[in-house]
Amino acid sequence: MGLSRLSMLVVIATIFLPSIAIATEFIVGDDQGWRPGFDYNSWAASKVFHVGDTLEFKYGVGEHNVYKVDGSSFQSCTVPTNSTPMTSGDDHILLATEGKKWYICGVAGHCSAGQKLVITVLPNLSPAPAPAGPSLSAPSAPAPVGFVPAPAPIEQGPWSTKNKNKRAFKRFFQHY
Ligand SMILES: [Cu+2]
Prior knowledge:
Elements: H1 2-21, E1 25-27, H2 40-45, E2 49-50, E3 54-58, E4 67-69, H3 71-76, E5 90-94, E6 99-104, E7 116-122, H4 161-174
Parallel strand pairs: 1-3, 2-7
Antiparallel strand pairs: 3-5, 4-6, 6-7
The protein binds copper (II) ion.
Residues 36, 64, 105, 107, 110, 115 line the site of copper (II) ion (CU).
């Protein structure tokens, strides 16, 4: 009956809509923060970054900084002369676009001592499997297949079950 399907929809929407909207904030190095002598490759390897997530670099003010660089500056630990570092000690960087991102500390010797981070940012609404549960692609196709059986006969009595379902479906999604 329509009601049980509706409640199923509510459950599905409750579970998956928030998981789309909530972005992750990654504290670089976790409790170790941003410092030389830490393996940021291993740190990043266990994580998946998406557009909309945030990196947070934590360090003592004046001890370190954060430069966003390109791949070759990353490899050679070259501090760019034409850009300004972030120096707040608690720098938040929104990952606004997909692709590779490189960050280094500009204090002499720190980058070559491992204070460098490269990550790959994936698209926001990736159809790739989510960490928990079924596909993220479900909400992008809000009309559940099979809810209103297709092909539905065009000519129907106004109080048919199918039309009731359609109205209930519309009412349900008016809340969004
Ligand atoms: Cu440093």
